[in-house]
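dude i think i finally got it to work??
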Amino acid sequence: MPRKTQTLHRKKGFGEWLRSRKGQKVLILIAFMALPLLLLTVFTYIPFVEMFKFSFYDMKYLGERTFVGIKNYLDVFARDDCFGSLKLALFYIAGGIVQLALALFFATILCFKTKGGAIFKGFLFFPYLISGIAIGFIFKFFFTRGFVFDTVLGWIGLNLDSLPYWLKDTSVNNFSLAGTSVWRYMGQNMVLFLGAMMSVDQTLYEAAAIDGANSWHKFRYIMLPSIKSVVVLNVILSVSGSLSAFEPPYVITNGSFGTATYFVVMNKLAHVNQKVGLASAMAIVLFVLIFAATILQKVIMNRMFPTDDDGSRAGKQSRRLAAGRAKKGGRTL
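look at this
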């Protein structure tokens, strides 16, 4: 009888596995992930943990540290120059609403073929490419008494003596500073909106047009729900940026005349007054506020634009338009 041969399946060693195709893929993934994770850990997570520890101490950058528990956090809410400065974020949030509305308006126009649209996009996006410090100096001279803005207003017949001091008058200076943020970031929001709008299936618009939908219905029921994720992203960026506004008030007014935002006060406490523990507590409080605002925005946006089980919210709205037209006996929506 022929002898039965047994094939021995030995396990691959680590060296053989590493030289295999699968091992090479894993090695490449680890190599590409290691450096970013290392940099993220060293320059983000470790400093954040250290800052959290500092928030429980009365300390300077150099010298002795005294453990004070939650006293720094209580001071954040008790001092007018700390938590009270968050009221100024309302000016920047109002500017952010205007900014998003303008960005959505221009993106809606430019997502269709528009004469000179490419040049217009470039002009709107260009301010975002300029350094925030440079923009601060530009608007510092733009709003200075008797300079560019006052000169332009004088050309249309307004008397210089009747105009307010745009950077000193506490009734208008924060609106002026918020306006600089609108000018700078509107182009960025527009490009994000535009990229999302260009990815919407054009057949949905055609189907809605056949069903009798007008331009507003196309925007409200097809375009806006389809770009919900980008709308949420832009809202989160605008609100977090409003809570942490720093460059306009710091460069243009240096926080004077009632323009010191939360970040400007934090910078002064940390680097001028050497109250590192209190400034660290302010940073932790700001982190919690931004995190809470982000969660709240996502909940609100999900309530406003719920997604169907199959994710076809836009398709369902288009069919709803057709059903509405049928119920109205063929009349235009």
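Residues 160 and 247 are 28 Å apart (CA to CA).
im so relieved honestly
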